Amino acid sequence: MPVHNKEIADILNEVADYLEIKGKNEYRINSYRNAARTILGLSESISKMAEDEKDIQSLSDIGESMAKKIAEIARTGKLKQLEKLKKQFPGSLRDIMKLEQLGPQRTKILYEELNIESVEELKKAATEGKIKKLEGFGEKTTQNILKEIKQFSYKGGSQRFKLHEAEEIIQPMLRYLEKEIDDITIAGSYRRMKETVGDIDLVGAGKDAQKAMEHFVKYDEVQDVLSHGESRSSVRLRAGLQVDIRLVKKKSLGAAKLYFTGSKVHTVALRKMAKENNYKVNEYGIYKGKKRLAGKTEKEMYEKLGLQYIKPELRENMGEIEAAQKDKLPGLLKLKNIKGDLHTHTHATDGKNSLKEMAEAAREKGYSYFAVTEHSKKVSMAGGLDEKELEKQIREIDELNKKMKNFKIIKGIEVDILEDGTLDLPDDILKELDLVICAIHYNMKLSKKKQTRRILKAMENPYFNILAHPTGRMINKRSGYDMDMDEVMKEAADHGCYLEINSNPDRIDLNDKHIRKAREKGVKLAISTDAHSIGNLEYIKYGVAQARRGWLGKDDIINTRSWKDLKELLKR
DNA sequence: GCCGTTTTCGGCCCGACTGTTTTCAGTCG
After folding, report:
1. What value, to the nearest 5°, has the Cα angle with vertex A42 and ends A196 and A507?
2. Which residue is nearest to nucleotide B1 (CA to C1')?
3. How do residues A503-554 score in pLDDT, each as one tens digit?
4. Domain residue extents for chain A
C-alpha cells in the first residue's frame, strides 16, 4: 500500500514547522516546504516512483537528502527525524502556530517561558493575564490571541471555502466597494480558480486611499478588522471568510494584480528570473536600478520579462514559465466553446425541473444540445428509473425533439456500475440511447484493486461512453474511492471511453491534477454540470475553469463538438 | 536543504502592517 503524496507532504511540512520553532536556518526550512509543494503538485504517486527507483531527484526542489527522506517515508510510513522532533516538543505546538498572528518565534517563547503546549493552555494563560507580562507581548496581543482562539474553535480549524460559496459572499461586497474604489478586481486563488479558496484577495486603485480604506472596513458584514493601513487592509467577514485588499496607483495596477494573483510560487519564480537579468519585480512594477520599466498591465510585465502572457489559471509554477519562454503555452478552452451539457437530471428522478424547462433553459444558454441522464433503478434514494420508466422518458424526449428547432435533447442515462462491474440496466435498453454515462454510487469502500477492476469491467460494456464523477470525492466531506487512475485512463483511451469533469462545485471531479494527467495521456474529457435544476446549469463555468487549470484546449473536450461530430465520437 | 549560461560555495523575492518598541522583530501574503 503506497503512502499517499499528501501524507508525505504533511510529514515534510510538519518537520518544517518544528525546525521553525527551533529557529533553524529559514532557507533550510523552506526547502522542506518547497519539496512538499512539489509532491502535492504531482499526479503520480511519489512513493511508487521511489519504490520503482525512478529518479525523483530530478524533480524540482528535491535533492539528495530530501530523496532519502522520501524513500524512508515511502518504505516505513514514518520519518525518524520527525519522531525525534515530536519528542522534543510534546503537545500540540503546531496548533498554536496555526493561529493567526502566532508564528514560530512567539510559539517558542510561549513554550519556553510558560510551558504552554496546547491551544487550551494558551487560552488559560491569556485569561489569567500571564501572556502580557512576556517580553514582546502586551495587552493588545493578549486580546488578539483570545479572539483568534474563539475563531479557531468556532471554525474547527481552517476550512477552505468552495468557489461558489466564496462567490456568493464576495460579489455583493464587490458591488459595495466599487462605489469608492476604481478598477477593483478579485485576485488570489479565486482568480486562478482553484477549487477552494482560503481567503479573498482584492486589488484596486483608490481615488482617495484613506477614504477607500475607511469604506472597506465599514462594510456591514465585517466582523473583525485585522489590519487597516493606507495601502493594505484586512478584515474577517461574519461568514468566516477573510478578505485582504491592496490599493495602488493606476500605473502599478498590473504589477499589483500579478503579485496578488500569485500563486506565491509563480511570483517568486518570476522575481528570481527577473533578478538574474538585473531587474527587480515588486507589486509596483519592474525596475532596473531606479528606472521603472513596466507595471500598468500584467501583459507588459510578462513582456518585459520576455514571456508570453500567462493566464491566471496556469500560474502555479508547474512548467508555465518555461513554456511561456518558448512561446509554447497551450490555447485554453473557453466557456463559449461548450456546445452542450452532457449530464443533467429532471424531476423524473431527483431533479427540480421538468424536462421541458431544463431543455428550454439549456437552449437559452446558447447550447445546441443537452443530455438528460437520470439515475438508474439501483439509486432508489433518488428515484432512479427502471426499464419501463426510461422507455417512457425516451418517448417523451422524441416528442419534444420534434417541436424544438435547432436544438437536440440527447437521450441518456447515468447508469449505476454495480459492485461486480456490470451495469444496472440491460444492454437492450441501453442501445436505445444516444449516450450512456456510468457512475459509482454504492460500495465506495472496496479495495483499490477491486474498485479498479470494477470500473475496467464496466468499460468493457460496448455501450459505456463516459465515466461520471470518476473519483466520487466530495470537497471538504469525503475523499474519493480508492482506484488506480492510470489504469482507468489507459483503459478509457483503449476502449474509446471518456472521463467526465463534473462541474458541481461540491465535487470538481476530475480535479485539476487529474485533468493535466489526462492531457498527458491523450484521454479526452466531457465537461458536465450534473445539474439538478435550471440554476445548476451555470456550474459549467467551474468545470471549464478546472479544464483550463489542467492546460486543456477546445479539442481536448468532446462537448465542444457539434452533435453530428459528437455522435461519431460516441460510437465504439 | 537546494541549486548552478559568473557551478560545488554562497546565495536563496520583496514589502506592508502591528504592537511593542524608541528603531524593530514578528508575521503575513
Report:
1. 35
2. A28
3. 999 999 999 999 999 999 999 999 999 999 999 999 999 999 999 999 999 9
4. 5-155, 161-248, 258-325, 335-570
Which fold, A258-325? Beta Polymerase; domain 3 (3.30.210)
The phi and psi torsions of A125 (rounded to 5 degrees) equal -65, -40
8-state DSSP, A557: B
Nearest nucleotide by C1' from A38 CA?
B2
**A187 grid coordinates:** 485576485
Q: Is the CB of A261 under 7 A from strand B?
A: no
Which superfamily does CATH assign the domain made up of A161-248 to? Beta Polymerase, domain 2 (3.30.460.10)
The one-letter amino acid code at A202 reads L
Instruction: Give me the A residues in range 13-32 that sit within 7 A (CB) of strand B.
Output: 25, 27-28, 30-32
List pLDDT tens digits, range A210-268: 889 999 999 999 988 888 988 889 998 988 889 999 999 999 999 999 999 999 889 98
Q: How far apart are CA A485 and CA A42, in angstroms?
A: 13
| pLDDT at residue A113 is higher than 70 | yes
Tell me which architecture the domain covering A5-155 has in CATH.
Orthogonal Bundle (1.10)
List bases in chain B with any atom under 7 Å of a protein Cβ. Answer: 1-3, 6, 11-21, 25-29
Output the CATH code of domain A335-570.
3.20.20.140
